[in-house]
Amino acid sequence: MTGPDLLQPKRVLKITKRPHPQFLNNAFLDPYVGCEFACAYCYGVKEDRRVGVKTNCAFALKRELEEISEENPEPREGKVSIGISFATDPYQPAEEQYQLTLRALELAKEKQYPVQIITKSDLVFRDAKLLSELSNDGLCVVSVSLFTLNETAAKAFEPHVPPPAKRLEMIKKLREEGITCGAVLMPIFPHVTDSQEELEKTFAGLKDAGALYCVPGILSLAQKGVKERVMDVLSEHFPRACYQYSVLYDDAGKPSENYCKKIERLLKFCSEKYSIPSILPVLGAALNRTLIVEDSI
Ligand code: SF4
After folding, report:
1. Are 182 and 155 spatial neighbours (Cβ–Cβ below 8 Å)?
2. 20 to 30 A from 232, CA-CA: which of 14, 26, 43, 257?
3. Domains and CATH numbers, the chain
4. 8 Å CB contact between 255 and 218
């Protein structure tokens, strides 16, 4: 693999009209394009695991946050809650060199903006002190992403990231560092990782690790390229599931409504049994006033 593409976009912050229904952020920052971890189910992966680096990210973000502050001079008005790198891992290998996530977190602290990150990488511990300070101010949530504790399935679908057991340890350590932390349980694979036994095992593991929440999601095959990559892995490692997927998923790549309802009931059961909510702690005082939090399951 050759080096990353160096990019200089005009703007880096994408502000949405309504908060994200599950993650609650109303702004998104992607310092990187593509993700070197290349999980088979991810729509953020580029061909040949290529990665683009927005080298002007910190500069552009500072300017854009200042524009928001100028338009909204009241200290707590007009705040955005920033989801950092939701379509790419903010702590993928390129971050070691370019430190764009670190710079964004420093800016969030300086300007008191709430941020959320989702990662599978233990490079997150490099920034533990800063994340802990932000958490203390109610300005930060760190979500560790894992879709199963089944090592075989994890190795098949995401061979380039730490194994699930290590990610449970990450949650434990992040909580010990005083960081507001929970899990993103995505994607749930029909007929592979969706049994009650398996989901309960995962919720029990999250409970032991001290996860404050668990936001779940069922596999979608709607995004370009995802279906092909997922079916390749299924046919190699879980061939019996291939036919089941052809029945369960429609042409748009969505699973059937009945299936979704069944899994939603199961997740609700797990969430209640293990006392792990399926919603995030709300970020920041400004957002506390404006967000309507709805349980998504
Ligand atoms: S680590 Fe996250 S962003 Fe990166 S490929 Fe995997 S799912 Fe996608």
Report:
1. no
2. 257
3. 5-281 (3.80.30.30)
4. yes
Which residues, 6+ apart, have CB-to-CB distance to 231 below 8 Å? 242, 245
Q: How far is the CA of 24 from the centre of ligand 1 (A)?
A: 20
Contact residues for 215 (Cβ-Cβ < 8 A; gap 6+): 22, 23, 143, 182, 183, 184, 185, 186, 278, 279, 280, 296
161 C-alpha to center of ligand 1: Å? 9
pTM: 0.93
pLDDT single digits (tens) 102-122: 999 999 999 989 999 999 999
Pocket-forming residues, ligand 1, beta carbon under 6 Å: 35, 37-39, 42, 44-45, 88-89, 120, 158, 161
Q: Does the pLDDT at position 287 exceed 50?
A: no
